[in-house]
Amino acid sequence: MSFGPEWIVIIVVLLLLFGGKKLPDLARGVGRSLRIFKAETSDLRKEDDDDSKTTVVQGQTVQQPPAPVSPQQIPPAVPPLTPEEQARRLEEEAARLRANAKADKQA
């Protein structure tokens, strides 16, 4: 890294803006932020690597096919609720919430 005139101008501007006393705190904050950023991006890369599930065969990367889904793993289709059934369930839930709120107030 060459220390050219651009860097000298940047350092002088930082000294004028923040002063000599605040620069170490500023540098520490930037360093912490960079460490956190690097940790988060490496975590994302690890998650992406885990998700891809690739294997290496004779120097070539081969994508693993997804596991087949058996009919037992698929949940049965639920018939759509009628508007009356939806209203009844909402009224029951509202009554339950009112009872919980009343019990919380008394406790």
From TrEMBL:
It comes from the Bacteria. One of its GO terms (cellular component) is TAT protein transport complex. Residues 65-82 have a biased composition (Pro residues). One of its GO terms (molecular function) is protein transmembrane transporter activity. It holds the Pfam family TatA_B_E. GO terms for biological process: protein transport by the Tat complex. It is found in: Cell membrane. It is a single-pass membrane protein. Residues 54-64 have a biased composition (Low complexity). InterPro entries: TatA/B/E (IPR003369), TatA/E (IPR006312). Residues 42-87 are annotated as: Disordered. The keyword Nucleotide-binding does not apply. Keywords: Cell membrane, Membrane, Protein transport, Translocation, Transmembrane, Transmembrane helix, Transport. The keyword Secreted does not apply. Belongs to the TatA/E family. Part of the twin-arginine translocation (Tat) system that transports large folded proteins containing a characteristic twin-arginine motif in their signal peptide across membranes. TatA could form the protein-conducting channel of the Tat system. PANTHER family: SEC-INDEPENDENT PROTEIN TRANSLOCASE PROTEIN TATA. The Tat system comprises two distinct complexes: a TatABC complex, containing multiple copies of TatA, TatB and TatC subunits, and a separate TatA complex, containing only TatA subunits. Substrates initially bind to the TatABC complex, which probably triggers association of the separate TatA complex to form the active translocon. This is Sec-independent protein translocase protein TatA. It comes from Nonomuraea endophytica. The gene is tatA.
